[in-house]
Amino acid sequence: MGNERGNGKRGINGVKVLHLNAGNETGGGMVHILSLLQQFDRREMTLGLLECSVVYEEAQKRGLSTVCFGQTSKYDLSVLKIVASYIERERFDIIHTHGARANLFGYLLKKWMGCQSRWVTTIHSDPREDFTGCGWRGNVWTGLHRFALKFPDHYFAISKRFRDLLVSFGIRASRITVIYNGICFEEPSCPLIRRQDIGIDEDDFVLIMVARLHPVKGHMLALEATKRLVSIYRQVKLLLVGDGPLLGDLQEKMRDLGLERHVFFLGHQPHVHRFLAISDVKILPSYSESFPLVLLEAARAKLPVISTDVGGVKDLVDSPSLGWVIPVNDVSALTAAIQEAIAHKMEGTLRKMGERLYEKASKQFSIERLAADVYRTYEKLSCLRDET
């Protein structure tokens, strides 16, 4: 077993929880896990990562109690015994899994290894869409994941829609707790940048999309909408923050559409806030989401949003005064919403929309509220375990 931090001690009258994750997240899932763990007593919570990658490095920086199990590939099951032994030795009350691979391990730990801890999982995304574009291997992983999801003791759904989705899978509603993502709404401490630092002008209308480069996120739609817009508004620029398997296809599409002067591929960025701060509107044309953290990050930057009607988006953007919610897979609707945003900027009212979004989000979707909701569920599950 690899590097480890923390002493594994239980807080006074606390619940001891192992959060299990593959360890290769770079987007909202990583932010959710790390931000949540920072709210808890380090003696009660440990982050267990199957592989030592980006999440491990970030957890170390934040001083979280962390253990890396050293899985050599996603097909390496030899690490399963190591994880099971660690759980037994440390006497965790609850195993909390995040993501498809961790969920499969949760099933194997319970059914193969006889783990006695209660098992909970957070549904961060639609299990039917997690492996979109991955061919037959994706179909196999989707089937395995859907099977494993029948067995947790309890579920956290990141939106009411995801609760309903789980119920449609045959899971009892009494085993599901709806929790909304949350973030800290204090402005992040990071070096700021100016528009000219990345080659855009002060009078440009800047769209920003923060998402991994994956088919489910709708980047192709964003490029198509940008193409339609630049024929009318030459000063439209699109910032794409994130990396992923679709990079080459998106760059080819950009060239085919003649958008080289309008689209900026910025890759993975550890300080997203500074790019939000120089943008005019955040777009998210996804085909599937749970409750997107990137929209809360936009709200923190007082940036209005344009998002497809997925997951819990309407629980945040529930009024036209806060932004735009559009149909899925509709380039015309996306283009029209951006045109309206441009008109609002010209009228001087766009920034006010972002300020209203900030006011709502900071009151209802704080990380403190999320942590309190999660911990209450831990306590109930721990009591049930003690009774049995």
Shape: globular
Largest sheet: 7 strands, parallel
Helix content: 40-55%
State the distance separating the first and last CA atoms. Answer: 31 Å
Number of strands: 13
Strand proportion, as a percent range, falls in 15-25%
Q: Strand order of the main beta sheet, please?
A: 3-2-1-4-5-6-7
Mean pLDDT: 91
Radius of gyration, rounded?
A: 21 Å
Unreliable residue runs: 2-12
Our count of helices gives 14
The chain-level structural class is alpha/beta
**SSE pattern:** EHEHEHEHEHEHEEHEHEHEHEHEHHH
Model description:
Helix 7 crosses helix 12 and helix 10 crosses helix 13. The protein is globular. The protein starts with 16 loop residues before the first strand and ends with a helix. The chain has 388 residues and is an alpha/beta fold. The strands form two sheets. Strands 3-2-1-4-5-6-7 form a seven-stranded parallel beta sheet, sandwiched between helices. A six-stranded parallel beta sheet has the order 10-9-8-11-12-13, with helices on both faces. 40% of the residues lie in helices and 15% in strands. Residues 2-12 have low confidence and may be disordered. The protein contains 14 helices and 13 strands.
Per-chain topology:
Blueprint: E1 17-21, H1 28-37, E2 45-49, H2 54-61, E3 66-68, H3 79-90, E4 94-98, H4 100-111, E5 118-123, H5 135-148, E6 154-157, H6 160-168, E7 176-178, E8 205-210, H7 219-230, E9 236-241, H8 247-256, E10 263-267, H9 273-276, E11 281-284, H10 293-300, E12 305-308, H11 313-316, E13 323-326, H12 331-347, H13 350-364, H14 367-387
Parallel strand pairs: 1-2, 1-4, 2-3, 4-5, 5-6, 6-7, 8-9, 8-11, 9-10, 11-12, 12-13
Helix pairs in contact: 4-5, 7-12, 10-13
